[in-house]
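2 proteins. here.
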Amino acid sequence: MSSAKNKGSDAEQRAATFLQQQNLALLEKNYRCRFGEIDLIMRDGDTVVFVEVRMRTNLYYGGAAASITPTKQHKLVCTAQHYLAKYEIAPPCRFDAILISSNKGSEIEWIKNAFDAS
């Protein structure tokens, strides 16, 4: 496994642990379909939460938040719709972002409702 993949997996694990400490339940990790991938799918009460994890060691190019482009958002929405198709009645859902920044990956920022699915 490459160093970048290891860092990405570590960031996703840190994000999952952080969210579980906030009383969210992990449903899926690295959900993949033909539309793309969702890093984490969690449950917050009755709400399904689709989580994009981004790690940046510097703020060049706008940092972690700026890397969730409209194109990436569209892929996340399509992938989430694919996931939700298994439910007879789709539960409420939202898209969150976990941003991990600094050279040591020590700062975690949780953005609830990071973008709208419309």
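next one coming up
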Amino acid sequence: MSKVEKFRKTRETEIKLKLDLSGGPIEIGTGVGFLDHMLELLAYHAGFGLEIQASGDLHVDAHHTVEDVGIVLGEAFSEALGKREGLARYGEATIPMEEALAQVALDLAVRPYFRFEGTFPRERVGDFDLELIPEFLKALAMNGRFTLHVRLLYGENAHHMAEAVFKALAYALRRALRTAEGGPRSTKGLL
């Protein structure tokens, strides 16, 4: 596993990102406060170093910024994993956040897939549109080239529910990134 730096500029967004799977500073500034909060939780609980500076067409809405940060983080994650040899491969976590409960299961094999089950009790937390959470996660999984299943089991407070999702993702990643002896965790001999 390695450190990765990425830069992406489109007509809608500009993103500069540093990812270190072995740890390091966490400094997030996307212009979308709730996303910053979720990414800080993700990096902290996964044990990653993560620095992101992003700007986007927030005068339209946060969609492009949130999705593009997911794309760039996914690309960086895929690059950092390299050939993905020596990894436990699978990770799962069920995390409570007070009254909320979320479950994440993932497979780091190079088979991108995404599924999200569950609903938030309202559409927004502050000015953040909660439908962007599945958009971010889908962009992360598809560009990170891994399988990601997310189940938002229940909850009453939408903020707690979102935190439970991101913390469950962090702990599932921690487990999948553990070192495993004996080469790729596949009967094919290749992930």
